[in-house]
Amino acid sequence: MDHFEEDLVEALKEIVRSGNWQCVGSKSKFKSPCTKLYSDDGEDIVLVHTEDDRFWAMDSSCPHEGGPLDLGDIEDLGDGRLALICPWHHFDFCLDTGASSTGLQNQVYDVRVVDDMVYINTQSSLSLSPIPSTNTAPQENLLPVEVASNPSENTLCFWATKVLCTADPKEKVALTKEIQEWWNSGKITEVGEATPPAQPSRKDNLTVLEPGKIKRGKGGTQASRIALLHSLANIEQWAIDLSWDVIARFSEFTLNGGNSLPRQFFSDFVKVAGDEAKHYQLLEERITELGSYFGALPVHNALWQSASDTSHDLLARLAIVHMVHEARGLDVHPQTLSRFATQGDQRSVEVLEVIYSDEITHVAAGLRWFTYICSEEGRNCLTTFHELVKLYFKGYLKPPFNTEGRKIAGMTEEWYIPLVKPSS
Ligand code: FES
Ligand SMILES: [Fe+2]
Ligand SMILES: [Fe+2]
């Protein structure tokens, strides 16, 4: 037996010994650079095949904000190692270790090629085509399309719907601030009712692309900072809409016992809407100071998907939008901040710090109303949260967690650690 055959036999033995190696097909199937493999546990994988015929595998959902790494580019890190670059904000993930220079970490998987067949070491079942979901969450967009025909004009819901139907972000911000003032001063007293639009309005000149289709030039450091701020401004614009949507859509929500939501629920989300408007404005001003403008770059509207998926279930909405996505925003804050700090962009650092301290209160608001509803309805908060996240959020929650920020918001580890992928 020559050396090569011995290696082959040893490799085959190892695969047989370990039950976690999965054959995903012959290597000719996997064109360079990336192929997405769908996983039965929702944590899809990107298989990287380089020109020099080497393979790597990592989670395909970017640990930053869920960007599609399978649409990313491969870059040399300069020390012989290669990285996969996320197409959304250009964070790098080393193919060998999954580590990013931003401090984030992606899950990597061992890959072996034996006899021209590709094997990945993972417990999940992988497929080249999407695996039908086995959860019972409604898949279609259930948001009603029409705005209610005769809403009373002096209600919070009437105005909430107005913001959602306002396309210009500057007008969205101005109107949000006015409504907040009217609500706080008692000029509006009724919550009222309204049917919010299925999708908030956006300006025609804003290029909204499918998630994953955003390709930005590499640019210098200023260009990459503008791109990151632009992306955050886009998130804040959606966050304004999400706040008004939760108010309008769930204004008539009744608890199991028949009670309506307390008035404080609406006051809390008016405050959240006001904060999001402030955040958008701060970021927009900063982008302008740096010589660009909001709308200069394409944006994605992936965030609204969570609103659509949870349009019929307030607990799910609070869990996914505020306790998963907004809490994730706290997790990535330290890395984002250090990107600006290391480039000496102190003004952006100040803006990000204002946003961060407000965002803690948004996670706290989501958690507060989630636990309120659960306790009023006699449900176990933690079990309900874990069930809803498994139902409505694709994949696992990923470290690193901002344990301190989450704790200030009231979210201790028992909320999120059980939702992390078990180590194989
Ligand atoms: S989502 Fe990947 S870098 Fe932001
Ligand atoms: Fe915000
Ligand atoms: Fe927020």
Mind explaining what this structure looks like?
The chain is α+β, with helices and mostly antiparallel strands and 424 residues long. The protein is built from 11 helices and 13 strands. The protein has 2 domains: 125 residues, Rieske Iron-sulfur Protein, CATH 2.102.10.10; 264 residues, Up-down Bundle (Ferritin). The strands form 4 sheets. It has a 5-stranded antiparallel beta sheet, with no helix packed on it. A hairpin with a 5-residue loop joins strand 5 and strand 6. Helix 4 runs antiparallel to helix 5 and helix 7 runs antiparallel to helix 8. Bound molecules: FE2/S2 (inorganic) cluster and fe (ii) ion (FE2) (2 copies).
Average pLDDT number: 88
Question: For this structure, what is the CATH homologous superfamily of the largest domain?
Answer: Ferritin, core subunit, four-helix bundle
Q: Radius of gyration over alpha carbons?
A: 23 Å
Based on secondary structure, the structural category is alpha+beta
Number of strands: 13
Low-confidence stretches: 139-149, 216-220
- Rounded to the nearest angstrom, the distance between the terminal CA atoms is 34 Å
Return the CATH class of the largest domain: Mainly Alpha
Biggest beta sheet summary? 5 strands, antiparallel
SSE run: HEEEEEEEEEEEHHEHHEHHHHHH
Strand order of the largest sheet: 8-4-3-2-11
Strand content: 5-15%
Q: Remind me, CATH topology of the largest domain? A: Ferritin
* Number of domain units: 2
DSSP summary: helix tally: 11
CATH architecture of the largest domain: Up-down Bundle
Anisotropy-based shape:
globular
Helix content: 40-55%
Bound molecules: FE2/S2 (inorganic) cluster, fe (ii) ion
